[in-house]
């Protein structure tokens, strides 16, 4: 008799977990901007503003959502609360594990991006650098932009 209660409790917990997962997925489908992977960028202790400029994301049962990639000149980023010094390490952290990341950079809003290899550090030459990050995750792809103002 006691074993039946334990088994029934475990089954109810499993059902509740599955139901919560389905409800979360239904909410995410209705608001996909909140569901896609987030990225934070820090230089030393300063967090830089990041914009999600586009995505393709897949939910349960093959449901998909997408946001057409926006050109960088249409992105409105608030300036970081301070300027950076050359040589500071830029650290990118994603809310979900990324399968592939491509980082590109342009100088002084030229929008002529080139791929960045190796460690990501703030350039020593003063100016404003725009970064384009294309990341691939298990559920889809996301395009991010951020910039760094160097003194």
DSSP E strands, number: 9
Main sheet: strand order: 4-3-9-8-6-7
User: From the helix content, strand content and strand pairing, which structural class follows?
Assistant: alpha+beta
- Average pLDDT works out at 80
- Provide the succession of SSEs: HHEEEEEEEEE
Number of helices: 2
Mind summarizing the main beta sheet? 6 strands, antiparallel
What sort of overall outline do the alpha carbons produce when their principal axes are compared?
A: elongated
Rounded to the nearest angstrom, the distance between the terminal CA atoms is 73 Å
Q: Poorly predicted ranges (pLDDT <50, ≥5 residues)?
A: 18-29
The share of residues in extended strands comes to 35-45%
Backbone CA Rg: 20 Å
Roughly what percent helix?
10-25%
Name the descriptors:
single chain, 151 residues, alpha+beta, 6-stranded antiparallel β-sheet, 2 helices, elongated
In words, what does this structure look like?
This protein is an alpha+beta fold. It is built from two helices and nine strands. It has a six-stranded antiparallel β-sheet with strand order 4-3-9-8-6-7, with no helix packed on it. A hairpin with a 6-residue loop joins strand 6 and strand 7.
